[in-house]
Every structure is written in C-alpha cells, then in structure tokens.
Amino acid sequence: MERRLVLAGMAAFAASPALAQSTTAPATDAPATLAPAPAMKMAAPMNVSDAAATHMKRTMAVGSLSLATSRVAAPKVKLTMLKQFVEFETLEQETIASILKTMMMPGAPPSGQVPVPTDAELMGNLDPEGKAMVEKMREMKAGEAFERDYVKAQIAVHKELLAIQEAYLKAPDNLDETNVAKLAKGQITEHLVLLNDIMKQLG
After folding, report:
1. β-pair type (4-5, 35-36)
2. Which residues of the chain form beta strands (DSSP E)?
3. Distance in Å from the first CA to the final CA of the chain
4. Closest CA relative to residue 65, chosen from 30, 102, 33, 40
5. pLDDT tens digit string along 102-144?
6. Are 116 and 94 in contact (CB under 8 A)?
7. Could you read off the pLDDT of 177-200 as tens digits, one per residue?
8. What residue ranges in 48-197 does DSSP mark as E strands?
9. Which run of H or E residues covers position 35?
10. What are the structural domains, with CATH classification, of the chain?
11. What's the pTM?
C-alpha cells in the first residue's frame, strides 16, 4: 500500500470563518483524499521487515498529527464528551508513540513510564502541509465551528490509522508489531464510534 498521510481530510478547518481567507479548498462530506505521507526523520527499526518498519513509521506519522491537533484542541473545546475524547486521544497517542519509539531502540530497558513527546518532536514528524494545518488550528477561535472541524479531522485521521493497522494485519510478520497493530485497531475502532456520536451532538 502506498504510504499516505491524511492531510487533505483536515482541510475542513479552512472552511471556518476564522480561515475564510485561506487558499485551502473548502471541506465537503465526501471521503477525504489522502495526501502522501511525510518523509520521516525517525531511525529505521532494526531486525524487522520492511512491512513492519513501514507500519511503525506510518502509525507514528499519522498519530503525531492526531496528537498535535488534540493538544491544540484541549483548551478550546467545551462540549463535555468532546473534552473527554481529547483527553483519551492524547493519552492513547502519547502511549503508542512511546511504545513505537522504544521498539525502534533495540536493547532499551523496560519501563512503566510513558515519556511524553514534545511538540517539537511531533512537528518534526509532519511534512510542511501538516505543520501548516496545525498552525491554522492554533489560529482558530474556540467555538462550535472549531469543534465540528476538529471532529471531522479526527474522523479522517482515525480512518487512515485504521487502514494502516488493517493493511499490516493482512500479512503480519512480526509478533510484537502484530500485537501493537491489534491493540491499536481496537482503540481506533472505539474512537471512531465515539467521534461519530459526538458529531451527532454537534449537528
């Protein structure tokens, strides 16, 4: 499967009044067009297949976008259920990022701690288009329009994350990587259900 990153799906943010001057095409209800994934700066995992390495890097890339936008959304969202989702998503992506990072470091000792990636690390995993999207979100004002656009973006991101897990699980070749993909798939599926329920509340 071609390496892709959902960025066009997040163009919904450009449709908000705060970004009316943006040249980004307005969002529609049609499925998001997936843009190419950014060139990752992370070190290649050792002793794993190309398929497992690709799964790690793509999961990290799309997860970084989800985490970065969720951090921006945290102080802006007001709907109770959405605030809970932002907390869940932030914790999930920080945990997955920690797991994948240690998997790329052979010989790393086990630890019960979850090192939190910095904003700079997250931005380093994004291409210029992804970085620009995060900056636009930072400029948007809190309100219902922001909440709707954030949820639409997260649905697009989660669909891509789900596709990444499903693609690897079709031909798994590494036990640890397979277990990560299975766990991630379950969480992503649950979050998609939650996101769709939140969208119904937002109207």
Report:
1. antiparallel
2. 4-5, 35-36
3. 34
4. 40
5. 887 777 777 777 778 889 999 998 878 778 888 988 999 999 9
6. yes
7. 999 999 999 999 999 999 999 999
8. none
9. strand 35-36
10. 50-202 (1.20.1260.10)
11. 0.76
